[in-house]
Amino acid sequence: MDVLIDLLALLMGIVGLLGCFLPVLPGPPLSYLGVVLLYFWGNDPDFMAAWALVFWLAVVVVVTVLDYVIPAIYTRKTGGSSSASRASLVGMLLGIPFLPPLGMIVGAFLGAYLAERLIENKTLEASFRSAWGSFVGFLLSIGVKLIVSIILLYHIVRGF
């Protein structure tokens, strides 16, 4: 049974890493569930302190919220509209089937750009600036999720 728990926790950690790139999978929360699985049912009673488990829960909650906020902040910071923020998300979701994760990145960029040009009637330069903000925010969001998921995967592997 211990091997099954270890493998399931490892699988959750790996799928959590994939979730950093694929918006249909909640990356850090899945990685955290792998840690929780090892904490409560793993074979190492000294796997992690209870305060660390609570700390990582707080980190995962903050990162999950920031995942939705960071791209919108960067889009707005570069002059983008709420239409660009929403279209960036739609473009990212539409880009998933096309060469992931590159399709998601290009989709987010194009979504913000097209929303600014077609809906908000902004200039080429202003539209490009908003799309660039969306792109940078998207990459930053992925980076933050990836760092947290890698650390959690490290704890899972260390817990074997």
Report on this structure.
With 160 residues, the chain is mainly α. It has one domain (2-158). It is built from 6 helices and no strands. The protein has helices at 2-19, 27-41, 50-77, 82-95, 102-119, 124-158. The relative contact order is 0.18. The model has no long low-confidence stretch (mean pLDDT 89).
Query: What percentage of the residues does DSSP assign to strands (E)?
Result: under 5%
Q: Tell me about the largest β-sheet.
A: none
DSSP, total strands: 0
What is the distance, rounded to the nearest whole angstrom, between the alpha carbons of the first and last residues? 13 Å
What's the shape?
elongated
Low-confidence stretches: none
Indicate the percent of residues in helices.
over 70%
The chain-level mean pLDDT equals: 89
Q: In DSSP terms, counting alpha (H) and pi (I) runs of 4 or more, how many helices?
A: 6
Number of domains: 1
Q: Summed up, what is this model?
A:
With 160 residues, the chain is an all-alpha fold. The protein is 80% helix and 0% strand.
Keyphrases for this structure?
about 160 residues; mainly alpha; 6 helices
Write the layout of secondary structure elements.
Elements (H helix, E strand, L loop, with lengths): L1 H18 L7 H15 L8 H28 L4 H14 L6 H18 L4 H35 L2
Helix pairs in contact: 1-2, 1-6, 2-3, 2-6, 3-4, 3-6, 4-5, 5-6
